[in-house]
Write a structure and sequence with these properties.
With about 325 residues, the protein is of the alpha/beta class. It is about 45% helix and about 15% strand. It folds into 2 domains: about 5-140 and about 300-330, Rossmann fold (3-Layer(aba) Sandwich), CATH 3.40.50; about 150-290, Isocitrate/Isopropylmalate dehydrogenase-like (Rossmann fold). It has 13 helices and 11 strands. The chain has a 6-stranded mixed β-sheet, sandwiched between helices. Strands 3-2-1-4-11 form a 5-stranded parallel β-sheet, with helices on both faces. Helix 9 links the parallel strand 7 and strand 8. Helix 1 (about 5-15) packs across helix 13, helix 5 (about 95-100) packs across helix 6 (about 105-115) and helix 8 crosses helix 9 (about 220-235). The longest helix is centred in the middle third of the chain and has 19 residues, at about 180-200. The relative contact order is 0.16.
């Protein structure tokens, strides 16, 4: 069974409610129609009657719950709750109302905070900052989280590497230039995400242009230090580095470049040294390798909130909704 089919089956086994705040985008409704037809998750779509009508024409979204913030009976409760959360930061009740009615992502976060939804998918027409800022202000980080980061699930067709072509790439969407401690945290979170979603043991490689001391540079030193920290912090996972990408994935090259590594040649979780490398890497694999790219998925928020690439298709949104529903089963 293909990765995304397994995810859909998991989501169906214990249905959760996912909130979609981007009713101004046609792709939201195309994805919603497919999710509802396959009975993968319950959906709440936030929007006015005009927004929903204009963007859902010809699509069957009759099983979705449509909530208009301007008329919904619990809106006042959400506004009051938001004000209580942010009044210490100087927010007034009037500002709370203006924010929630003017930005559906804030409204969606308050719904999750108040227990009226299990997760959120946004970002098709909003920046990552506009997706994550409300999440961190309202839903906040999960207990014990050192860092909120992002990952992609990459599904590469006809690929013998990774977990039959399935990988987690981190961080490709959020943390610009992590220090060693942050890079180690990304490695640990990404390993846990792989295990949760793929159901297999993660094998984690911290990537570099160097393999086991083959090059000397401050950038290499950062990865070496991060690997040491990650091994100490997450002994339950197989983690190693620094490794070049081919040494991480290809058994023969791994055996040659890092013969004493328990990760080299076997990696299914690839940790990039910075956001430039991660973003470039996932897009090259997606476009040249014709891979499915699901994400950027967020890790470290108390409830699943997942970002979308603004270049996403409706099919991409379906995949992210299904993954969000599975994440919600364990949050």
């Amino acid at each position: 069974m293909a990765f995304i089919d397994e995810i859909k089956a998991k989501a169906k086994s214990n249905k959760k409610t996912v909130i979609l705040p981007e009713s101004m985008d046609r792709r939201t409704f195309e994805a919603a129609a497919e999710i509802l037809a396959e009975d993968i998750a319950d959906l709440i779509i936030i929007g006015t009657d005009d927004e929903v009508k204009a963007n859902s024409e010809g699509l069957d979204i009759s099983k979705a719950t449509i909530i208009n913030p301007h008329t919904y009976e619990k809106t006042k409760e959400y506004i009051n709750g938001f004000y209580e959360l942010r009044k210490a930061k100087g927010m007034t009740p009037e500002e709370a109302e203006k924010t929630l009615l003017g930005d559906y992502m804030y409204y969606a976060c308050m719904m999750v905070k108040m227990g009226d939804g299990d997760g959120i998918v946004s970002g098709a027409c909003h920046s990552t900052a506009n997706t994550l800022r409300p999440s961190l202000q309202i839903i906040k980080t999960a207990p014990g989280t050192k860092l909120v980061s992002a990952f992609f699930v990459m599904v590469v067709p006809d690929c013998e590497y990774g977990e039959d072509g399935v990988f987690v790439f981190g961080d490709c969407g959020l943390v610009q230039n992590p220090n060693p401690e942050e890079l180690a945290a990304i490695a640990g979170s990404s390993a846990a995400s792989f295990k949760q979603l793929v159901g297999k043991e993660p094998v984690v490689a911290l990537l570099s242009h160097s393999s086991m001391g083959s090059a000397k540079h401050d950038d290499v030193t950062k990865v070496v230090e991060a690997t040491k920290i990650a091994k100490e912090e997450y002994p339950q996972f197989a983690i190693d580095g620094e490794l070049q990408a081919d040494a991480a994935m290809v058994p023969s090259i791994g055996a040659s470049k890092a013969p004493n590594s328990n990760v080299a040649g076997k990696a299914n979780v690839l940790i990039f040294p910075d956001l430039d490398a991660g973003n470039i890497g996932y897009k090259l694999v997606q476009r040249l390798g014709k891979a499915e790219a699901y994400g950027p998925m967020c890790q470290g928020i108390a409830k699943p909130v997942n970002d979308l690439s603004r270049g996403c298709s409706a099919k991409d949104i379906v995949g992210v909704i299904a993954i969000t529903a599975v994440q919600a089963q364990n949050s």
